Amino acid sequence: MTDHRSVSIVMIEDDEGHARLIEKNIRRAGIMNQIRHFLDGTSALEFMFDSPEGPALNGPALVLLDLNLPDMSGTDILAKIKAEGSPLRRTPVVVLTTTDDKVEIQRCYDLGCNVYITKPVNYESFAQAIRQLGLFLSVIQVPDPEV
Questions:
Q1: CA distance linking residue 96 with residue 25, whole number of Å
Q2: Helix, coil or strand: residue 1
Q3: Among 19, 44, 52, 118, who pairs with 13 as Cys (CB 3.0-4.6 Å)?
Q4: Integer Cα distance of 11 and 14 in angstroms
Q5: How many C-beta neighbours within 10 Å does residue 34 have?
Q6: Helix, strand, or coil here: 23?
Q7: pLDDT tens digits for range 52-107
Q8: 111: Cβ–Cβ under 8 A, 6 or more apart, which residues?
Q9: Its pTM surpasses 0.85
């Protein structure tokens, strides 16, 4: 990510163990961007759209999104981020979930997700997948939010 420090990563993941594993392996890949972790969709959306530190009001971000959240579906969050007129609609969203259902994958791409990754069940495979994601994050370009 260009000017790596200025792009914040918003991780929406209700499983604390997965969240720790994701952060640890992103760090191992050399990504030192700020990671804001949210356990549910409501607080994540409030932060992203309304907080002075959030991406809508404070510059570029990348979203790591789990689909299975306690309070709302990850696809609902994706739809809000990518909606016409949303200041975040160009924000890259990486869906990172246990769901490998073809219909769900298609739906996420239709809604505008940029990358869909199925979490491997095996710990070592999961760690490896996240390290590879970290390498991917280190080279992508992230646009500023729309004003």
A1: 14
A2: coil
A3: 19
A4: 9
A5: 12
A6: helix
A7: 999 999 888 999 999 999 999 999 999 999 999 999 999 999 999 888 899 999 99
A8: 75, 78, 79, 82
A9: yes
Paired tokens of 5: 């420090």
Nearby residues of 130 by Cβ (< 8 Å), 6 or more positions away: 21, 22, 25, 26, 29
**Residue type for 53, please?**
E
Q: In the structure encoding, which two tokens stand for residue 141, read together? A: 């370009």
**Long-range CB contact pairs, 72-79, < 8 A, 24+:** 72/40, 72/41, 72/42, 73/41, 74/12, 74/41, 75/104, 75/107, 75/108, 75/111, 76/41, 77/12, 77/41, 77/44, 77/45, 78/108, 78/111, 78/112, 78/113, 79/111
Structure tokens at 97: 């979930």
Tokens of 131: 């390290």
Residue with structure tokens 């709302």? Answer: 72
